[in-house]
Amino acid sequence: MDFLSKIIELFSTEKYMDSIWEGLKLTLTISILAALLGLVLGVIVALVGMAKDSWAMKLPKLLCKIYITIIRGTPMALQLFIMAYVIFAIRGFPLVITATIAFGVNSGAYVAENIRAGILSVDIGQTEAGRALGLTGATTMAKIVIPQAIKNVIPAIGNELIALIKETSIVSMIGMYDLTMAAKIIGSGNNMASYIVPMAVVALFYLAIVYLLTFGIKLIEKRLRAGDKR
Amino acid sequence: MKKIISLALAVVMLCCATIGFASCAKEEKIIVHTNAFFAPFEYYEGTEIVGVDVEIMNKVGEKLGKKIEFVNVEFSAIIDNVKDGVVCDAGAAGITITDARKEKVDFSVPYYTSVQYVIFKADDTTLATKTGADGEYMVWEALAGKKIGTQTDTTGWIYTDGEINATADNDYGYDGVLYGTNTELMTYDNAQLAADAIGANMIDAVIIDELPAQFIVAANSQYKCVPLYYSGETDADDAPVEEQYAICVTKGNTELLEAINAVLNEMMKNGEVEKLVMKHMGLEK
Amino acid sequence: MISVKNIYKDFGKLRVLDGVSCDIKDGERVVIIGPSGSGKSTMLRCMNLLEEPTYGEVWIENDLLTAPDPYLHFDVIRKSKTYSSLMKSAKAAAPGKSEEELDTEIIAKIKKEDLLKRFEGGEYSKALSEINKESRIDINLARRNMGMVFQHFNLFNNMTVLQNLTLAPLELKLKTKEEAEKTAMELLARIGLEDKANEYPSRLSGGQKQRVAIVRALAMNPKVMLFDEPTSALDPEMVGEVLELMKDLANEGMTMVVVTHEMGFAREVADRVIFMCEGKIAEEGTPDEIFSNPQNPRTKQFLDSIL
Whole-angstrom Cα distance, residue C296 to residue C157? Predict the structure, then answer.
């Protein structure tokens, strides 16, 4: 009963709701920007990683490998910390950019792996058939391989986006006002003086965002499936 | 190809913006790092950081003709950030003066004397309190064998760590009151998280500064808080664990330090600091 | 038509092709047979560079598909630093011998011991790039003239049958959409599958898929067709329809290179049969010569084991 009345108190207090909206805005901003950056980075890294072995590609390929190894091998919280306190330790540097880069760079490594796996899942014979007809590697990739790979990649990237959104909750670590920070503020001593209710409420907001996203991904998947009438 | 070029452009622009920020922002405003979970000294009111420290620093800004910008960071990061002086100029977060911190930063004159408090469950009979001339209090010994929660890098944490781990034989050079009593120290990101841990039966007590303790207890009727004392020979000798708050600046930034000292001295002379504390605790008439 | 010159192919440490040369003449139907692992598929795939030979050259008419192989050009070898230093020391060691004698010896030595390095001086590099400039053709252009049919059909799963046939002509801007679709429908009519034009490959039987794959290659009007075990992945009852179509093509005078285990087809259609074994051409000749009177004991052994 106490729990319920506190939830009502939270939703009916203007300053608490202000906090939540403010946090929601930042969580969404970072998530969306980082997802875009991650996609761009992921595509580039995947393409470089899968390019033919040649003298000129040696260094870029090595860099991509190192990048993926480091990002996947270290905790996100530490990556964020290093971005904020080492790399972008610049006076007045907007934290939103720091966080976007930290999460985008992190997401990019996973997206790259997802794309790579998706492309590898397409039978090599498809590429050979395209090339044997005289199509260039790029055309074969664009018209034959990628359309088939996308069906495998979209669900994996969807999962990555969901993970990304939830992972942004650690930006409060560098003092940023996201949903989790909003919960901490509402729960702090001078406000509700208990984290339990605001944390539960904020969890519902994350759930709602992820649910909407899942729904969107399902729609896209359905469309892609409908496309090949199988 | 076009995409690659536009991406490269974006990167270049980002770099320019960064350098721009670095060069032009330097002189215009004073950046103050704080941890806005320490009412009444600094806390979020909705989306804005307010509190005693904020009002003090704003006065300093007026005096110097510069804008003050408060940035919320982890409490444990403040001292090091101020020491480096790259991302901020000052730290105002109800920071207690300690010798270790003095080696890293310059402190202003102290502007508030605080006492360490213990928060515990009101119905917890295993924690004995005493009653002295100034009312109920608890001595360190009462916490023997308990699980104690603190906020990382606060003085509560430093004291508790010392009392649990110090012996005359190790680096501390004195005997801790709780040494060898199986007392456990747990650290949390902030006081509220520690207090919630009592409710969740994870720990028995939290040691934290007086004012935040009172805020937490005021809003949670199942908790109680009393000042923490060092035992003397008799009850009358028992003395509270006292400490003094000050604002810190990067070493060598005398202009800012002098301005802060001037503002603080004036405010303390006419009792304004007390008034601000009252105001931000919601006790203002 | 196609000229394979002394090609080698290594997969890591494994040598799959060990110095193979052969010429496919215009209008000729060549069937390549041999035990599995003999390199016959690899050789076929080297012809349109789906596999890049480690050494050797592949020519189609007067166009060079591979990078020039210096070991095949004596005048290039003579420009290398290795050659000139060997010549110098050889002259000192045997002053009596004629320059021509030495030249033959040294070139043989260089070829045998694979002595050429990546960089052999400016003259040498210039000579190689000269050949490149004169004869080398963009592989994508060359492939337009070489249709390829795969064991596993490799129809594009994301496209309808019609799109499979029109993709390359349209992407390469060889035809307008109307022309490409008209040709495609004619080709589908030829194999009796015009009603499947808008189906996806997954709805076709194996035999239908392979026949579509063949006409997909034909849609490019190739000068030569390469078949890589076109019936090996088919159910037995579907082999006939595919072979029928291939025979039709042969009768029309299409130049064909076929890797297959269908000896009946080889006997009936081939102008020449090549028997490959352990990365080399062990024997070649007319179907009669190979099937009725094999000279090489290995050919005999192979034929005995499958017939």
Answer: 44
Separation in Å, CA C246 to CA B266, C34, C231, C250, C256:
103, 20, 11, 6, 9
Contact C302, C35 (CB under 8 A): yes
Cα distances from C157 to residues A139, C149, C179, C216, in angstroms, run: 16, 16, 23, 14
Structural domain span for residue A112: 2-229
Bin A134: left if φ > 0, else alpha if -120 < ψ < 50, else beta. Answer: left
The residue assigned the tokens 């909750």 is A169
Q: How many domains are there within chain A?
A: 1
Strand bridging mode B205-209 / B112-121 = antiparallel
- Residue contact A194–B74, C-beta within 8 A: no
Q: ipTM more than 0.90?
A: no
Q: In what order do the strands lie in the sheet with C146-149?
A: C146-149, C224-228, C255-259, C29-33, C272-277, C280-285
Contact predicate B119/B196, CB 8 Å:
no
Per residue in C40-71, pLDDT (tens digit) is 999 999 999 999 999 999 999 889 999 999 88
Instruction: Give the distance from CA B175 to its chain's centroid.
Output: 26
Q: Measure A190 CA to nearest chain B CA, in Å.
A: 6
Q: What is the pLDDT of residues A191-213, one digit of tens each?
A: 888 888 999 999 999 999 999 99
Q: Do A134 and C152 touch (CB under 8 A)?
A: no
The candidate with the shortest Cα–Cα distance to A165, out of A202, A203, A204, A209, is A209
B65 near B8, Cβ under 8 Å?
no
B215 touches chain A (CB under 8 A): yes
Helix H or strand E encompassing B71: strand B67-72
Residue B16's contacts (CB-CB under 8 Å, 6 or more residues apart) are none
Q: Residue A229: its chain C contacts at CB < 8 A?
A: 200
Closest to C57 in 3D by CA, of C13, C49, C78:
C49
Q: Which residues of B touch A22 (CB under 8 A)?
A: 46-47
Measuring CA to CA, how many Å separate A14 from each of A3, A201, B36, B123?
19, 15, 20, 34
Say whether residue A66 is in contact with chain C using an 8 A CB cutoff: no
Establish, for the pair of chains A and C, how many residue pairs have beta carbons separated by less than 8 Å. Answer: 69
Q: Which domains does chain B have, with CATH numbers?
A: 29-113+245-280 (3.40.190.10), 114-242 (3.40.190.10)
pLDDT given at position B252 = 92
Look up residue B31 and give its two tokens: 């950046």
On whether the CB atoms of residues A192 and A180 are closer than 8 A, the answer is no
Contacts of A142 in chain B (CB under 8 A): none
Are the beta carbons of A9 and B219 closer than 8 angstroms? Answer: no
C175 close to C125: Cβ distance less than 8 angstroms? no
CATH of the domain at A183: 1.10.3720.10
pTM of structure: 0.76
- pLDDT reading at B270 higher than 50: yes
Q: Which residue of B has its CA nearest to A97?
A: B14
Q: How far apart are CA A103 and CA A113, in angstroms?
A: 16
The number of angstroms, rounded, from the C-alpha of C154 to the middle of its chain's C-alpha atoms is 18
Is the four-CA dihedral A198, A204, A207, A212 of positive or negative sign? negative
